From TrEMBL:
Residues 97-207 form the NAD-dependent epimerase/dehydratase domain. The keyword Methyltransferase does not apply. It comes from the Bacteria. This is Nucleoside-diphosphate-sugar epimerase. It comes from Jannaschia pohangensis. Keywords: NAD. CDD domains: SDR_a4 (cd05266). Signal peptide: none annotated. The keyword NAD applies. InterPro entries: Epimerase_deHydtase, NAD(P)-bd_dom_sf.
Length: 289
């Protein structure tokens, strides 16, 4: 039986899960709390607390996905399970690492693709470059079929702008020339599934939609969909923001996604933020009260 061992089984991996379960897979997911473990179990996932022994789960797994981001100590999965991965990863049919388009750094709004040099402008981006390199080194040493997925800004059910627009806390922060790429979580899931079905060891894919856009446009459109006043524009220079939030504006680029279309045959469900936000709002309205 095909079995996915998913490290850091979070938002993106949980969107992939029903696609695999419907096809007869087993999914094992790590998490850090008993509460989250119970939630995963309710979704049909076999939970394991991160840090506990994983020899049996690794032996069962035919495929491995890691979504855990690096910190100042490096990649947490490699740190916790390095020897286990060195022993077993080469025997897997597919290994996926979820990274970020932040590895490309700032390009002044110009386009980047998978061949663009990695020049991250933030500490987070530099840690991701180091983590990618560590996973690539492990794949080279073990022969593991590693696939790297560089994700743009993720949104989806429960993770969108509507709540802040409704409660009046949304802000349209304007920095001239600033654009971001983004991706609906269901498109992440279908791209991962397509790669699993058509693996190419060493492949790198950008995961984003077709419409890089200024962040203030997204907030404005969300307000229009809700029939609420568009929040006023706030200049970036004077906006009150956390250092983390401000760091996102240090990079502006448009990300190409041609490879997932041409190589994996993917047609995006939500090719722009307008279709994605319309989907989220429709789900909200149909959800049980």
């Amino acid at each position: 039986m095909k079995t996915l061992l998913s490290f850091g089984h979070g938002f993106s991996a949980r969107a992939l899960t029903p696609l695999l379960l419907a096809d007869g897979w087993q999914v094992i997911g790590t998490t850090r709390s008993a509460e989250k473990a119970n939630a995963l179990r309710a979704e049909g996932v076999e939970p394991v607390i991160f840090g506990e022994p994983l020899e049996a789960a690794m032996a069962r797994a035919s495929h491995v996905l890691t979504s855990a981001g690096p910190d100042t100590d490096g990649d947490p999965v490699l740190n916790a399970y390095g020897p286990l991965l060195e022993t077993h990863l080469g025997s897997k049919a597919w290994v996926g690492y979820l990274s970020t388009t932040g590895v490309y750094g700032d390009h002044g709004g110009d386009w980047v693709d998978e061949e663009t040099p990695l020049t991250p402008a933030t500490r987070r981006g530099r840690m991701r470059v180091e983590a990618e390199a560590a996973w690539q080194a492990l794949a080279t040493a073990t022969g593991a079929p590693l696939h790297i997925f560089r994700l743009a800004g993720i949104y989806g059910p429960g993770r969108g702008p509507f709540a802040k627009v409704r409660d009046g806390t949304a802000r349209r922060i304007v920095k001239p020339g600033q654009v971001f790429s983004r991706i609906h979580v269901e498109d992440i899931a279908q791209i991962l599934a397509a790669s699993i079905a058509r693996p190419r060891s060493g492949a790198i894919y950008n995961l984003c939609d077709d419409d890089p856009a200024p962040p203030e446009d997204v907030i404005g459109h969300a307000a229009e969909l809700l029939g609420l006043p568009v929040p006023p524009a706030v200049p970036f220079e004077t906006a009150e923001m956390t250092p983390m939030a401000r760091s996102f504006y240090a990079e502006s680029k448009r990300v190409r996604n041609d490879r997932v279309k041409q190589e994996l045959g993917v047609t995006l469900k939500f090719p722009d933020y307008r279709s994605g936000l319309a989907d989220l709002l429709q789900r909200e309205r149909l959800a049980p009260k």
